Prior knowledge:
Elements: H1 10-46, H2 52-88, H3 94-114, E1 119-125, E2 144-149, H4 151-163, H5 165-185, H6 200-205, H7 207-213
Antiparallel strand pairs: 1-2
Amino acid sequence: MGDRKLKGGLGNALASSLWATLIFIVLPITFILFTVGVIDVAVADLGDDLPEEVKDIIDGFVGGLEDFMMTVIIYAIPIILVALPFGFFKRGSGLRLLFGFLQLPLIALWLYYITNGGVLLVGVTDATIPNLPEDLPLALALSGAVELDMSGLIYVLMAVVFAKGAVHLAEYGGYRGRYLRSRYKGDDDDDYDMPRKKSKKGRKSKGKQQDWEYL
């Protein structure tokens, strides 16, 4: 049997892809839908107390959240696709390391684009809203647009994402020896020595196959 700790295979590829789907699509969209639900309940409770101008603002905000969901999904798709080969190749494989590194900029771009670089423009309205109920949040009484600059936080989170490259390198170095033994031996024999050099004729006949085995 092969070394189970190396994992890899179709099952792990699907699990890796499903995990990426959960993190980058399911959880964000669940949060967005929850927010929309809370807004709908609040609007229903206030009912006729809300001026039409405020209802228009809320409808625009909800519409923006729906567009935001599409942005989340679109930029998450490449991450999910790369997660498939990342999970398929075993620990210690050069190809797993490659796809692990490829995931990092994709995750950073996903984080950057769904937050607009950390600069959020909260548009309210250009018109003054008359006769607002006193129990409405203060934000709804504002006019124009409010800019929330959280770019510093977003850049820190992106740096943390790229720092995960060190984890991929550590995994690659820690499992590389076991991976090579599993490719030659097919089991977890720690006393197994690497094969000696073969003749030129033997190397030519299996050259391409051996190159792939090292990856």
